[in-house]
Amino acid sequence: MQNWLWQAKDSIAHKPKTLNYLEAAALPLVGVSAWQALVEHIRLSKDKKVLVQGGAGGIGSIAIQLAKHLGAFVATTVSTDDKQFVQELGADQVIDYKTENFEDIVHDYDAVFDTVSGDTYKRSFKVLKKGSGMIVSTLEQPNSELMNQYGIKAVFLFSQVNRQRLTRLAEWIDQNNIRVNIDKTFSLDEAAKALDYQKEGHPRGKLVLTI
Ligand SMILES: NC(=O)c1ccc[n+]([C@@H]2O[C@H](COP(=O)([O-])OP(=O)(O)OC[C@H]3O[C@@H](n4cnc5c(N)ncnc54)[C@H](OP(=O)(O)O)[C@@H]3O)[C@@H](O)[C@H]2O)c1
User: Fold this and answer.
1) pLDDT tens digits for range 21-69
2) HSE (CB half, 13 Å, CA atoms) of 36?
3) Pocket of ligand 1 contains residue 149 by CB under 6 Å
4) What is the 3-state secondary structure (H, E, C) of 154-207?
5) If exposure means fewest CB atoms within 10 Å of the residue's CB, which of 3, 122, 149, 208 is most exposed?
6) Whose CA is nearest to atom 28 of ligand 1?
């Protein structure tokens, strides 16, 4: 079998039964990213504390629900308008990144899942448990200076969608009534508009192009 066909076969799975097709289309990249970070890298478990940076985004909104399902205490950073949205997803502590400094509020956390990068990534090291804390970022490569300074393990997450992860994700979605939030849909010829909205519109969850 040709290599590309084999790879395509390995990246498909049955859609979750409890999601409609739009929601299912929005799930794979963000769902697998949250799964890889929290289940595979951090190995989040009951009573651990995790801070999700960017909780109202595509990845963050799934990560909050997954972390709660794993039994963790979940803090998250969002903008003022998104506070209620993430509370409804189950976040225990919601921090408004526009008006508050998260490092003044959370301390001694087991893990940070960073989907924001930059200054937020660097400041995240301060809230982790020295010696055992871990930060996983979808955007930042591990910074050895910060790792040594704070005694923290840092990992860059490269999301890889495959059948095994999609299947486990779909089972979890179906068993736990998980929400995939679609902020807005656009037709394919409105793709440029969708990109502008992604940059400027502060969507909650995902945008979907309909074909
Ligand atoms: N490495 C990989 O394989 C991989 C895979 C998937 C995604 N990614 C990357 O990961 C990032 C996140 O993906 P996504 O799909 O979740 O993006 P997204 O839907 O755009 O979400 C990002 C969220 O971060 C929030 N945010 C911005 N600045 C913030 C701050 N200072 N503090 C807290 N939250 C802040 C945004 O909220 P506002 O509305 O307030 O702006 C938005 O809700 C993207 O940059 C994407 O390119 C990487």
Assistant:
1) 999 999 999 999 999 999 999 999 999 999 999 999 999 999 999 999 9
2) 22
3) no
4) EEECCCCCCHHHHHHHHHHHHHHCCCCCEEEEEEHHHHHHHHHHHHHCCCCCEE
5) 3
6) 116
Separation of alpha carbons 19 and 170, rounded Å? 9
The fraction of the chain above a pLDDT of 90, given in percent, is 94
Cβ pair 49, 71 in contact under 8 A? no
What's the one-letter identity of residue 79?
S
Distance 99 CA to ligand 1 centre (A): 18
Quote the tokens at residue 126. Answer: 């301060």
User: Helices 21-35 and 163-176 meet at what angle, rounded to 10?
Assistant: 110
Residue whose C-alpha is closest to residue 27's, from 188, 135, 171, 156: 171
Distance CA 54, CA 31 (A): 15
What is 3-181's CATH number? 3.40.50.720
Ligand 1 centroid from CA 81, angstroms: 16
How far is the C-alpha of 136 from the C-alpha of 161, rounded, in Å? 17
Q: What is the pLDDT of residues 155-180, one digit of tens each?
A: 999 999 999 999 999 999 999 989 99
Best residue for ligand 1 mutational test, from 138, 182, 206 (most atoms within 8 Å of Cβ): 138
**Structural tokens at position 94:** 């919601």
Length of the chain: 211
Sequence ranges of the domains in the chain = 3-181
Which residue has the CA at smallest separation from atom 35 of ligand 1? 54
